[in-house]
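User: Last request for today: this protein with flavin-adenine dinucleotide, please.
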Amino acid sequence: MASGETRLQAFGVTEPTAGTDTTSIKTTAVRDGDEYVINGQKIWTSRFQNSDLLLLLARSRKREEVAKPSQGLSLFLIDLRETKGITAVPIRTMVNHETNEVFFDDARIPASALVGTEGEGFHYLLDSLNAERILVASECIGDGRWFIEKTRRYTSERVVFGRPIGSNQGIQFPVARAHINVEAADLMRWRAADLFDAHMPCGAESQYGQATGLGGLLGSR
Ligand SMILES: Cc1cc2nc3c(=O)[nH]c(=O)nc-3n(C[C@H](O)[C@H](O)[C@H](O)COP(=O)(O)OP(=O)(O)OC[C@H]3O[C@@H](n4cnc5c(N)ncnc54)[C@H](O)[C@@H]3O)c2cc1C
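Assistant: Here's the final one, the structure of the complex with flavin-adenine dinucleotide:
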């Protein structure tokens, strides 16, 4: 993957009736000898057309057979180059983003495609989302700093009524607030990253880091 020979770009979680409410997904994975048989549908599966492998979340035990909704979900690493029964239909979007509806009709995958322990997929998913949130927070913090610096330069160069507009409190306060928000997000981002590296729970920290990073970025605009 690091050399670019194999592309793992696609993550199939969201379904037409299960977005935020991930544990209500309906795509099933049924064990049959040395294989799993996958049936169901995903939506908004991004980069599918540019991926050799797909990480798929599917229900391997029925909802009524498990105590909690988060149980009985499994994660699979599917080789799209050698799996039949998977069809992708591109979704047209207004942004330059390749995303798809993906249909699974008796798609057979080897049992070895299972990631980790069967039924634990939801926890693996949350863990990988934390890494993504830390990454997105870092992106937003970088963007936020760039916008604040651009704003600082403009407000000190733009002269109105004989003085730079940055000498007015009405301009200074929102810029200062945006700066503080971005720096607070930065601290939380590092805290989340440290916890993640130490294999400790970091759900709240990484979500807060992402939310404040986005907030700081919006505030700075
Ligand atoms: C361009 C694009 C690319 C994507 N790529 C992928 C991908 O590669 N793989 C993948 O699996 N998914 C992907 N997604 C799906 C994305 O992760 C989902 O859109 C997201 O999980 C939200 O699900 P939903 O759209 O069904 O919204 P819904 O679950 O219907 O929620 C709609 C709104 O209601 C809010 N809401 C829902 N429940 C509550 C509640 N209890 N309290 C308060 N607010 C609530 C939500 O926050 C949201 O704002 C992509 C989506 C887009 C648009």
